[in-house]
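Give me the fold.
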Amino acid sequence: MALLLVCASVCASEELVDKKTMNLWPGKAPGALGETAADTPVIQAFVPAAGTATGSSIVVCPGGGYGGLANHEGPVIGEWLSKNGVTAFVLRYRLGPKYHHPVELGDAQRAIRFVRSHADEWKLDARRIGILGFSAGGHLASSAATHYTDGDAKSEDAIEKVSSRPDIQILIYPVITMGPGTHQGSKNNLLGPNPPQELVDLMSNEKQVNEKTPPAFLVHSTKDNAVPVSNSDNYVEALKKFNVPNEYIRGEIGGHGFGLTKDWNEKCIAWLRAQKF
């Protein structure tokens, strides 16, 4: 990701600075197989101009088939959110085929916890932290929204004590299922070759929705030839089953990977405002 440069983990009393990049763990991350940038999950902050911040924040997960990170789904989105008063944190998560589940989910959960644990000093609302993802990043975002934990009160790591539940989820042409209709490249990179059926079912997030799943905003094109629109269709049906508030933009709005467009960006901001973000 072009703008991401590794730096030391933020200090407990340090002010949040625009474009600052922060390691999610001090030293090597759990499960790290090396010490390169690709082995080091980080977030980069995009801070609204003075006097414009709403106090809400969103972790951004770029797509790339769990094998890369699309630049037009990372820093560009951080800039867009910050210009609309939302503090954004673009996540560089670890990727397959070097890393498989649960590493990627662990990175996303840690990012949410990291922001929540620093909310007071960064003047953010710990109850208004969302997650946004594109394509495979949408799978990661929906995984964070359906596989969250409340935190470990007994942990010696203060960050691990807080919840990883996002308060809203924004999914743009997301991979949702690991079963029929998945994006095979994302599945291979995330789960490896020949994953057991139990793992396929576990990470098919349309099967993991419940009444506590956070509100969702989705966008998917019926012309998407890479990630079938059925991924979002089935997720929305699951959300409706459990009465989870959602807004879904579905139609002939491009193929796959169109990024930030007027087809959805203004409606998304309006939806965020309705969610008090």
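The chain has one domain: 21-274.
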